[in-house]
Design a protein that fits this description.
mainly alpha; two-stranded antiparallel ribbon; Peroxidase, domain 2; Peroxidase_pln; 2% strand; Peroxidase, domain 1; 323 residues
Length: 323
């Protein structure tokens, strides 16, 4: 059954891929990528955490109905962006800023969905991650529904749940590991840590046993019991501002901040994928290109999930509302 699912979604992604291309706006709005890049750079200079925020926005947009900008809509009841699984997602103002600048010179040409994908790419580069080409030509979706976001990957998912949710989007176990490693930059709220630290086993106050005992006091100090759930912790302790594979070393050693990252140790396949990168961990100059190339490939692949092209969507004038 899993092989059938993988074939089906690979086929669908292949159809979408054929309709996207690098440089889609070269003729219709040639300064598109330069404008998005400047807007993103200014946002990251103002707040370095914006890089991680924009990367997460792209992920959350693509995992519900595909990469169609549906997460940006906020002027209708039950819009997708208000889903429980999207809590803490941000970066909307950066996308709107880029959209306004593009509308001023190329009205009705560049989709909000493409701006999200380009902004995520530029954000990764600013965090010293890989530089890669983004195929464009997406249209914006015409549906945004909170109930369609019920199957988002969650921090409390088991490894099998995570693998299944990625497979449903045509993504492999390697994609799961590599895209999870995007947590190398950014922070998380204590809201997502409470269960793992203080109620991992229902009816008790025990913590997740996967947490290294030497790391547990630090996590609890950062997120005190009954404390402010809006306090934030770096997800990749020791390397939270630099895009690298340091987070995989943390995961293997029991220093995962997020429960979902820790679950990558629970499966032979995902563990072996991490080990394949970490086998050369003592020589970052050697392993970095391999991981970065794989990450770029997975990002492009994710960015083609369920895209709308041609008459399947629209080019919104304002990203937060349908035309």
């Amino acid at each position: 059954m899993n092989l059938i699912l993988a074939f089906f979604f690979t086929f669908i992604i292949g159809i979408s891929n054929a309709q996207l291309r690098v440089g889609f706006y070269a003729g219709s709005c040639p300064t598109t990528e330069a404008i998005v890049s400047v807007v993103v750079r200014n946002a990251v200079i103002s707040n370095p955490n914006t890089a991680a925020i924009l990367l997460r926005l792209h992920f959350h947009d693509c995992f519900v109905q595909g990469c169609d900008g549906s997460i940006l809509i906020d002027n209708i009841p039950n819009a997708e962006k208000h889903a429980f699984g999207h809590q803490g997602v941000g970066g909307f103002e950066v996308i709107e800023t880029a959209k306004k600048e593009l509308e001023a010179i190329c009205p009705g040409v560049v989709s909000c969905a493409d701006i999200i994908a380009l902004a995520a790419r530029d954000a990764i580069a600013l965090a010293r991650g890989p530089v890669y080409d983004v195929p464009t030509g997406r249209k914006d979706g015409r549906i945004s529904n909170i109930f369609l976001a019920n199957d988002m990957p969650e921090v409390s998912d088991s490894i099998q749940q995570l693998k299944t949710k990625f497979l449903r989007k045509g993504l492999t176990d390697r994609d799961l590991v590599v895209l999870s490693a995007a947590h190398t930059i950014g922070t998380t709220a204590c809201f997502f840590m409470t269960k793992r630290l203080y109620n991992f086993f229902p009816g008790s106050d025990r913590s997740d046993p996967a947490i290294n005992p030497n790391f547990l006091p630090l996590l609890k100090a950062g997120c005190p019991k009954n404390g402010d759930v809006n306090l934030r912790l770096p997800i990749d302790l020791g390397s939270e501002q630099t895009f690298d594979i340091h987070i995989m070393q943390n995961i293997v050693n029991g220093f995962s901040v997020l429960e979902s990252d820790a679950r990558l140790r629970d499966d032979v396949t995902t563990r072996s994928i991490m080990d394949s990168y970490l086998g050369f961990f003592s020589n970052p100059a050697f392993n970095r290109p391999f991981f970065q190339a794989d990450f770029a490939e997975s990002m492009v692949k994710m960015g083609q999930i369920g895209v709308k092209t041609g008459f399947q969507g629209e080019i919104r004038r304002t990203c937060s509302r349908f035309n």
